[in-house]
């Protein structure tokens, strides 16, 4: 399964609806996770190979929603559209759904299912200002729901309210019981867009420390015949940290992060690829090419196209 399919599949919708919240209109149409071949990457962390490919793309792309669908701007400033423009039939379906939610809100303005349904539908239609207003109301009704706050963060990001986006992501992280990579990535991107790379670095260093503590606990559990696994791949966090350093102009710190990744996970292609990208961005084409060769050697088959895309001049 190629990278674009994964990116399209994982990026079609802005939120996941909890099953217990299904009411009058039934479940919102959120995509199920993609199943893929499992590969152990790092201590006690199993993720799908395809998911690892997607995550790398998510870290190294600046995502924008547009009338063309999900748009990825790569470090080489190429723009790639993932997803399709809404057809007239799809727009009509969304408008009809929105009218149903609005009918409910006209009589029950605080109905949480209708608020979220209308907010998500408006976001899918690209009407982010109205979506943000409804999601703010929903957050008032459900202040401890991390999914609501995360969705609000996503919508505020689309409105280029990066400070508001970061604030919503922080609240979502506080409300979440477990570390969540999607939240971490959203908060990092919001802080970087708000020109606060040092804050992004601090968030990621704190996440790294928390992951290290969890890893220690997992090792102890394994010694006691436990079967726990880390829920966030530490390589994902390190890739984000390198990006935050790079965006803040701390290239040597970013390279040091990637060097440590390569040392700790010598058979994982992502450290080599990330280092190759930053060398390429800084004009060190020979060094970049050597990293890309190693990345392609270690990359699984469905990731080789990703390596090729980033390595081309």
Automatic annotation (TrEMBL):
This protein's GO CC annotations: Cdc73/Paf1 complex
Family annotation (SMART domains): TPR
GO biological process, one term: transcription elongation by RNA polymerase II
TPR repeats: 235-268
InterPro entries cross-referenced by the UniProt entry: Ctr9, TPR-like_helical_dom_sf, TPR_rpt
One matching Pfam family: TPR_16
Assigned keywords, A-Z: Repeat, TPR repeat
Gene Ontology MF terms: RNA polymerase II complex binding
Annotated transmembrane regions: none
Signal sequence interval, chain numbering: none
Official protein name in the record: Tetratricopeptide repeat protein
């Amino acid at each position: 399964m190629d990278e674009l399919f994964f990116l399209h599949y994982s990026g079609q919708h802005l939120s996941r609806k909890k099953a217990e919240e299904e009411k009058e209109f039934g479940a919102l149409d959120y995509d199920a996770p993609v199943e893929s071949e499992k590969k152990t990457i790092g201590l006690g962390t199993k993720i799908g190979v395809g998911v690892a490919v997607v995550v790398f793309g998510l870290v190294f792309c600046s995502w924008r929603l547009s009338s063309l669908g999900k748009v990825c701007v790569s470090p080489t400033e190429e723009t790639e559209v993932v997803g399709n423009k809404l057809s007239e039939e799809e727009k009509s379906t969304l408008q009809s759904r929105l009218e149903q939610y609005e009918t409910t809100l006209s009589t029950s303005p605080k109905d949480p299912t209708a608020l979220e349904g209308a907010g998500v539908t408006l976001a899918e239609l690209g009407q982010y200002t109205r979506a943000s207003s409804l999601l703010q109301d929903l957050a008032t009704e459900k202040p401890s729901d991390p999914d609501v706050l995360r969705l609000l963060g996503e919508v505020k990001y689309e409105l280029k309210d990066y400070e508001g986006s970061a604030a919503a992501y922080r609240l979502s992280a506080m409300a979440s019981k477990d570390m969540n990579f999607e939240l971490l990535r959203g908060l990092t991107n919001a802080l970087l867009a708000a020109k606060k790379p040092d804050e992004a670095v601090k968030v990621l260093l704190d996440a790294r420390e928390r992951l290290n503590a969890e890893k220690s606990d997992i090792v102890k559990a394994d010694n006691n015949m436990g079967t726990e696994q880390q829920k966030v791949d530490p390589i994902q966090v390190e890739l984000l940290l390198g990006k935050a350093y790079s965006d803040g102009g701390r290239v040597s710190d970013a390279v040091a992060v990637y060097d440590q990744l390569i040392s700790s996970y010598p058979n994982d292609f992502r450290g080599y690829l990330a280092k190759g990208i930053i060398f390429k961005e800084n004009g060190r084409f020979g060094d970049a090419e050597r990293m890309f060769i190693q990345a392609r050697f270690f990359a699984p088959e469905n990731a080789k196209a990703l390596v090729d895309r980033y390595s081309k001049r």
